[in-house]
Amino acid sequence: MKKTVVSLASAALLLAACSRPAPPEEPVRAVKVITVGTSAYASDHEYAGEVRAQVESRLGFRVGGKLLKRQAELGQHVNAGQVLAQLDPQDYRLAADAARAQVAAAATSRNLAAADFRRYQALKEQNFISGAELERRESTLKAAQAQLEQAQSQSAVQGNQTNYAVLTADVSGVVTAVEAEAGQVVAAGAPVVRIAADGVRDVVFSVPEDKVGSIRVGAPVRIRVWAQDAGLTGKVREVAASSDPVTRTYPVKVSIDAKAPPLGATVYAILDTGGGAAAPVIKLPTSALRQEGQATTVWVLDKASMSVRPQVIRVAMADGNEVVVASGLQPGMRVVSAGVHVLSPGQKVTIYQSNMPSAQEGRAQAAPDSIANPVPAAPASGAK
Predict the structure, then answer these.
(1) What is the rounded CA–CA span in Å between residue 137 and residue 116?
(2) Strand bridging mode 266-272 / 279-285
(3) Are 320 and 290 in the same domain?
(4) Which long-range contacts does 77-81 make (Cβ < 8 Å, 24+ apart)?
(5) How do the pLDDT tens digits run along the chain, 384 residues long?
(6) 150 assigned to some structural domain
(7) Total domain count for the chain?
(8) How many CB atoms lie within 10 A of CB 331?
């Protein structure tokens, strides 16, 4: 009997050892939550732009040739009339010399024709020749005079061609681009130097098609400089009539005063679209969002069971580090704002409690709540 009891006990121990242990319970995770509420959404729109000169010229030679020297450097300030670059002028000098020789030959022919005309005129006065013969000499003189004038004009053109081998600045400004180097053969009209003229500056930015209709010429614009705290004001000077063929956006130019940031500086243009009173919307921080396939979801907290469930939402637009929710949430819902990528449907959670003193904790908890503009925050020691 005793052996039977011992055998049964051993068998029970062996079965217990062979059976699989019970799976460990899923840990209860601490999460941060915010209470969904509505907030006012301003009608202002902010666009990233760039400071540019209101007048920017791409200068090139009026004749072609080999670039002999380039005096202008990138970023250099130049004055009107200052030499920027030079072509090899040898061929143009030879052409000018040839034109001057043609002028001398034409002048000799004209002088010979004039002397013949004077002699025949004296003979006509003595009735030694007919009037027709004198008219032929007069026509020869006029033709020689015309050839001389033509040669003189051609000589002047060749002189200009020689002068065109030197590129000078039309206006005072800053060299913003250099597009040719010494030794390069450039064609007539090819850009060599680009100059941003001194004077009024523009802020240039692009707006999408659905916003361009609300922008009017002369509308005030607030300018925020990325690298500075100071703000500027300006007015819309120009709105493009057609979209950019690549980006399909519409360039907008805003004129600002002489205290503009340096050329190329990044700025932000803030436009008031005149939409009237701000509409109430639901906003969430981007940290609360998660992507499931093509759907955007958030975790909604069930306070009764202290578990989370996924909720599909539709995002209308981004607003800085927040998004505007078009549908899927109602005011009063509690949404997980941090730790969304480690949760699963139905998982038990607890509300994260800060270890800061109560006075500081109350201020810290007010920041997440203000993101979604919930009802007034409860004391820090209480559960959310």
Answers:
(1) 7
(2) unpaired
(3) yes
(4) 77/172, 77/173, 77/174, 77/175, 78/169, 78/172, 78/173, 78/174, 78/175, 78/195, 79/169, 79/172, 80/169, 80/170, 80/171, 80/172, 81/168, 81/169
(5) 555 545 655 655 555 555 566 556 667 788 888 888 887 665 567 888 999 998 899 999 999 999 999 999 999 999 999 999 999 999 989 999 999 999 999 999 999 999 989 998 888 888 888 888 889 989 999 999 999 999 999 999 888 888 999 999 999 999 999 999 999 999 999 999 999 998 888 999 999 888 888 888 988 888 888 777 667 888 999 999 999 999 899 999 999 875 778 888 888 888 865 554 556 788 888 889 988 888 899 999 988 888 899 999 988 877 667 888 888 888 989 999 887 888 888 888 888 876 654 443 333 333 333 334 443 444 443 333
(6) yes
(7) 3
(8) 14
Q: Which of 306, 285, 286 lies closest to 367, judged by CA?
A: 285
Which structure tokens are listed for 113?
């024709």
Query: Which candidate, 286, 338, 331, 294, places its Cα nearest to that of 312?
Result: 294
Q: Are 84 and 78 in contact (CB under 8 A)?
A: yes
**Burial class (CB within 10 angstroms; exposed 0-12, middle 13-18, buried 19+) of 300:** buried
Please check whether residues 300 and 264 belong to one and the same domain.
no
Cβ-proximal residues to 8 (8 Å cutoff; 6+ apart), any chain: none
The CATH number covering residue 298 comes to 2.40.420.20
* The residue to which tokens 């000169």 are assigned: 53
Long-range contacts of 377-381 (CB under 8 A, 24+ apart): 380/354
The whole domain housing 355 covers 29-41+279-372
> For tokens 């005030």, what's the residue?
220
pTM of the model: 0.54
Cβ atoms of residues 300 and 311 within 8 Å = yes
